[in-house]
Structures are given as C-alpha cells and as structure tokens.
C-alpha cells in the first residue's frame, strides 16, 4: 500500500456563497481529474454557512479534506496552476487557498508575490516529499 497524505484546502477571500461553492467544485474536479494528484477521497467542508437568502460572512469557510497518494509538492503545484487559471468574476481580490498539512499551513494566491514565492519554496523544501510517491 502506498503512503497516504491527508490535507485540507480552504478557499479564502470569497464572500459570495454561490461563487465560493462553484470555485470549490472546480478545485475538487481539478484534483479528481488530475492523475498526478492521485486522489483517494475528497470531503467537502462548510463552516459558518449562512441562513438561506443571506450573504455569506467573511468567516465562512469552504474547504476540502483530501486524501491522496501524491506528494505535497505535487498538490501545491496543482493548486497553483488552478489558481492561475481561475477567472475572476468580480473586482474583489482573487481567491486564495490555504493548504493545511498537520500543524503547518501555506496560503497561496495568484499571482504570488515574491515573498509568497519564497514561503512556498521553503514549505516545499521542508514538507514537499510528505505523502505518496508521485508514480515512482
């Protein structure tokens, strides 16, 4: 049996409930459709869902809990590509994704700032091989 990687992806910076649901669905589909992600299970997570007819609060969390046989470095790369390809619908800042692995979190935006790029590189250097085998 190959190693298992479990992590959480949280969609941040989106205050429109329906738009956030659509983005989460698209991210889920991207992960499921990518052979490199080697997804075994994905669970959708909602925290702070507003009552029907009300706009989502900024604290509303749309997320995914993912079990994968890929390495964390591969997952980070897939999420970064997804962020780059995600069109913006509003004048609001683009969404960001927070990846949480154990007690460690990494927030990714598109395009990343130089500081964010450095943080991503350090995160991958420390945790990038966690998880699966990437087909090796």
Describe the structure.
- The protein has 136 residues and is α+β, with helices and mostly antiparallel strands.
- The protein has a single domain, classed as Alpha-Beta Plaits (2-Layer Sandwich), CATH 3.30.70.120.
- The chain is 33% helix and 26% strand.
- It has a five-stranded antiparallel sheet.
- A hairpin with a 2-residue loop joins strand 4 and strand 5.
- It is globular, with a radius of gyration of 15 Å.
- The relative contact order is 0.24.
Number of strands: 5
List SSEs in N-to-C order. Answer: EHEEHEEH
Largest sheet: 5 strands, antiparallel
Give the strand order of the largest sheet, numbering strands 1, 2, ... along the chain.
Answer: 2-3-1-4-5
Provide a concise account of the structure shown:
It is built from 3 helices and 5 strands; from the N terminus they run βαββαββα. With 136 residues, the chain is α+β, with helices and mostly antiparallel strands.
């Amino acid at each position: 049996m190959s190693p298992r990687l479990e992590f959480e992806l949280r969609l941040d910076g989106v205050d429109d409930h329906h738009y956030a649901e659509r983005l989460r669905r698209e991210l889920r589909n991207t992960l499921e459709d990518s052979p490199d992600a080697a997804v075994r299970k994905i669970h959708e997570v909602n925290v702070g869902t507003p009552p029907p007819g009300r706009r989502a609060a900024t604290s509303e969390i749309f997320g995914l809990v993912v079990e994968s046989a890929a390495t964390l470095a591969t997952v980070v790369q897939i999420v970064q590509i997804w962020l780059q390809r995600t069109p913006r619908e509003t004048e609001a800042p683009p969404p960001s994704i927070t990846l949480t692995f154990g007690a460690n979190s990494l927030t990714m935006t598109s395009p990343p700032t130089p500081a964010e790029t450095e943080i991503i590189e350090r995160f991958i250097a420390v945790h990038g091989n966690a998880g699966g085998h990437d087909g090796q």
